[in-house]
Design a protein that fits this description.
This protein has 126 residues and is an alpha+beta fold. The protein is 31% helix and 19% strand. The radius of gyration is 25 Å and the shape is elongated.
């Protein structure tokens, strides 16, 4: 049975190993393709100043810009063919004699639909 000193040393070695493994696993996310040894913080990976934006304090960007592709050619069915429940949330758009409904549950996954209504281009976003 190891002594209390040996147990403490083993615990410190285990913690150090865990920290190193975690750092190694997340290295590609932090470096953003930079040269080995060149340190790049997560905030520096995306430069809002170059993009003309400012980030609020504490902002963390989880996905790179344009990581979620919009829907370019949405498909629709007639209203009487839809079996949605009465409390389904939609974003509705009306133009001229046309009306379209975009379910929020679908927009949660794709976020943007590029479409047109009554011949006018629109962007539906969530």
């Amino acid at each position: 049975m190891p002594s209390a000193v040996e147990a403490g040393v083993n615990r410190k070695i285990g913690i150090a190993a865990l920290v190193l493994i975690t750092a190694w696993a997340f290295w590609p996310l932090a470096t953003n393709g930079s040269a080995p040894g060149e340190r790049v913080s997560a905030a520096a990976a995306y430069n809002p100043v170059l993009e003309g934006e400012t980030l609020p304090a504490g902002f963390r960007q989880l996905l790179p810009r344009d990581a979620i592709e919009p829907v370019y050619e949405p498909h629709f069915v007639a209203a009487h063919e839809i079996a949605w429940s009465g409390d389904t949330q939609v974003i509705g758009v009306v133009g001229g004699d046309d009306a379209k409904a975009y379910p929020v549950s679908y927009l949660n996954q794709r976020e943007m639909v590029i479409d047109s209504i009554a011949g006018i281009p629109i962007l539906v976003t969530w």
